[in-house]
Amino acid sequence: MASLLNPFRSTYRYLQRQAHENPVIFYSCIIGGIGPVLAVAVPPIRKHFGYVEPPPIPLGYPVPNRQRTPVQGYEDE
């Protein structure tokens, strides 16, 4: 049974040593690994708690349907 757990034990020791000797790289990899998990897990959780997505932002401005009057004044001759 000990031979089955040996790879996990050595991996745990390696990660423990890396966290002690190179904490910036170790924790950067941990945070980077959590990112894709959160990208999949957060939207259903937000929906469960009642988050409603806002309406989409308009991409254009509505132009009035009337004749245009020319601009006059301030050197617009």
UniProtKB/TrEMBL annotation:
Which of UniProt's keywords are assigned here?
Membrane, Transmembrane, Transmembrane helix
User: Which parts of the chain span the membrane according to its record?
Assistant: 24-42
PANTHER family referenced in this protein's UniProt entry, alphabetically: OXIDOREDUCTASE 9.5 KDA SUBUNIT, PUTATIVE (AFU_ORTHOLOGUE AFUA_5G08980)-RELATED
Protein name per Swiss-Prot or TrEMBL: NADH-ubiquinone oxidoreductase 9.5 kDa subunit
- Identify the InterPro entries for this entry: Nuo9.5 (IPR039961)
Superkingdom of this entry's organism? Eukaryota
